TrEMBL record:
This is Olfactory receptor. The keyword Transmembrane applies. Belongs to the G-protein coupled receptor 1 family. The chain crosses the membrane at residues 37-59, 71-96, 102-130, 151-173, 207-231, 252-274, 280-302. Residues 51-302 form the G-protein coupled receptors family 1 profile domain.
């Protein structure tokens, strides 16, 4: 690894103001066991990319799955795939080539992709919660309201909400001067970190970034929570415990996806905003869990809980199809 203040790194950093070089720390203090850390990261990437590609291919090639709930699942798989691919170049570059330097333009593109796909995933989870809300609370109107065309249109509209709002936030970073050692603590670029390296007033960026998060991801979380509040109230009014269990089981996969995405996201936001004295290891752990775990677990959860996809997996593996309960 290039020493932080070595002549090589200082030479890379001593370039024009318009294209500064940043240093991705990656995994500080763990240089001696990086080859062991590589194994779980490689497996997470392998599962995330192959699993989400498998779900997209299965839905695309099976006409029986061309239904609203599977279109939503394909949206989720697409955002998870994009999130994994966004962090892949720099993270694997550190492991394989000990490459810690990244130019500003590349860093700008990466942070835009990471945050965009995060906002997309939040939006998709919101639409899926509305789908579950209608399926349980208004089952007779479900097929009338939730049609394939409406799902695709709503999905595309809501998905591009976050990236459009991010454009000025990311572009403004280019106008800032960056002083001192341009060191980022992760193996990828995040807006929260890059903005702290600017040696000028960044009040607008901070307030605008906070507003974007509040009116996208936080608003999505509130609406999802309200949807589940109504769902739980409806399920509690069902006559038998068996009906209650059957109705709630249709939400388990989506609820798991919501928890594994929003819990680390809220934790990471709190740590970056208020955790100035929190150990660096906590920052690294929260960021890695937030970006790597949901894309890995979502295809596993939905492959296990989705009857049709599990049936296809059983056929591919030559196993007998096990009777399953409903989709979730």
């Amino acid at each position: 690894m290039i020493a932080l203040f070595s002549p090589q790194f200082m030479l890379l950093s001593n370039i024009t103001q318009f294209s500064p070089m940043f240093y991705l720390t990656g995994f500080p203090g763990l240089d001696t066991i990086e080859h062991w850390i590589f194994i779980p990261f490689f497996l997470m990437y392998l599962v995330a990319i192959s699993g989400n590609c498998f779900i997209l291919i299965v839905i695309k090639t099976n006409p029986r799955l061309h239904r609203p709930m599977y279109y939503l699942l394909s949206f989720l798989a697409f955002t998870d795939l994009g999130l994994s691919v966004s962090t892949l170049p720099t993270t694997m570059g550190i492991f394989w080539f000990k490459s810690h330097g990244i130019y500003f333009v590349a860093c700008q593109i990466q942070m835009f992709c990471i945050h965009s796909f995060s906002f997309m995933e939040s939006s998709v989870l919101l639409i899926m919660s509305f789908d579950r809300f209608l399926a349980i609370c208004h089952p007779l109107r479900y097929s009338v309201i939730i049609t394939s065309q409406r799902v695709i249109r709503a999905g595309l509209a809501v998905i591009f909400r976050g990236p459009v709002a991010l454009v000025p936030l990311v572009l403004l970073l280019k106008s800032f001067p960056y002083c001192g050692p341009r060191v980022l603590s992760h193996s990828f670029c995040l807006h929260q970190e890059v903005i702290h390296l600017a040696c000028t007033d960044t009040t607008f960026n901070n307030l605008y970034g906070l507003a974007v998060v509040v009116f996208t991801m936080m608003l999505d979380l509130v609406l999802i929570a309200l949807s589940y509040g109504v769902i739980l109230h409806t399920v509690a009014r069902l006559a038998s415990q068996e009906e209650q269990l059957r109705a709630f089981q249709t939400c388990t996969s989506h609820l798991c996806a919501v928890l594994i995405f929003f819990v680390p996201m809220v934790g990471l936001s709190l740590v970056h905003r208020f955790g100035k004295h929190v150990p660096l290891a906590v920052h690294l752990l929260m960021a890695n869990v937030y970006l790597f775990v949901p894309p890995m677990l979502n295809p596993i959860i939905y492959s296990i809980k989705t009857k049709e996809i599990r049936h296809i997996i059983s056929k591919l593996l030559g196993l007998k199809n096990v009777s399953t309960k409903s989709w979730s």
